[in-house]
Amino acid sequence: MAIALPPSWLEVLQQEFGKPYMVKLKQFLKEEQESGQIVYPKNSDIFNAFNTTHFDDVKVVILGQDPYHGAHQAHGLSFSVQKGIAIPRSLMNIYKELQVDIPGFKTPSHGNLEEWAKQGVLLLNATLTVRASTPGSHQKRGWEEFTDEVIKTISDKKEGIVFILWGAFAQSKAALIDEKKHFIIRSAHPSPFSADRGFFGSKPFSKTNEILKKEGKKEIDWQIH
User: Fold this and answer.
1) Res 59: pLDDT
2) What mean pLDDT is predicted for residues 147-160?
3) Active-site choice (57, 66, 196, 221)
4) How far apart are CA 58 and CA 217, in angstroms?
5) Of 62, 89, 67, 80, which Cα lies nearest the Cα of 193?
6) Is the pTM of this model over 0.90?
7) What is the Cα–Cα distance from 220 to 173, expressed in whole angstroms?
């Protein structure tokens, strides 16, 4: 696992990479790969969220749980898949909500969300790797400790960030966020199992832009091209 983070992230997270949990995590990932397990995303994409959205540029955080575990899907951004890969059902539901929430939004032909990330939307999964075809297989190995620290660091060192927390798991991370300084948008998860129970109609994207406008920040262009 090569760790090559931009300087702005290294400045605030450098101390994490020498901690015992991270040493154990690196060893676990090494053993997974040496034993022939296929791990997603590929090594160079594990920290893609940080390399695409630098710390200084973060305006919005969308929190996911695990990377996709199918071939060629995961590329280090939560909810996003690489171009040429079928759009997952949760992301299709996100696009459906965008059609209602953002006037003129057109459903993209692909599921790559890099355009959001480049505008300051940190697409962060709580666990950054997964074994092929085995959802949840890399949970409780140390990633959550790292990403909890990421959330706390954003909360402590920045102001006026919009955290979009979909579903019970993401909402459990609200305890890490100072709501006096930041904004939290909560709703059901866009998964087909829960989207009808409070995700559809929640308008998280227009709400985010309203907050950013009030904060004097540039709004997000949610249209994916």
Assistant:
1) 98
2) 98
3) 66
4) 11
5) 89
6) yes
7) 23
Q: How many residues in the chain?
A: 225
> Concatenated DSSP letters for 165-206?
EEHHHHHGGGGGS-TTTSEEEEE--SSTTTGGGTTTT--HHH
Query: How many CA atoms, within 13 angstroms, populate the side-chain half-sphere of residue 2?
Result: 8
- Give bridge partners of residue 113 from the DSSP assignment: none
- The answer to whether 26 and 88 have CB atoms below 8 angstroms apart is no
Residue 66 among the catalytic residues: yes
Q: For residue 62, what are its two tokens?
A: 């969308």
CA separation for the pair 208, 210 (Å, rounded): 5
* Tokens, residue 20: 């015992």
Residue 133 pLDDT exceeds 80: yes
Burial class of residue 176 in the structure, from the number of CB atoms within 10 Å of its CB (0-12 exposed, 13-18 middle, 19+ buried): middle
Of 119, 120, 21, 122, which Cα lies nearest the Cα of 80? 122
d(CA 212, CA 161): 8
Adjacency order of strands within the sheet including 121-125:
121-125, 60-64, 162-166, 183-187
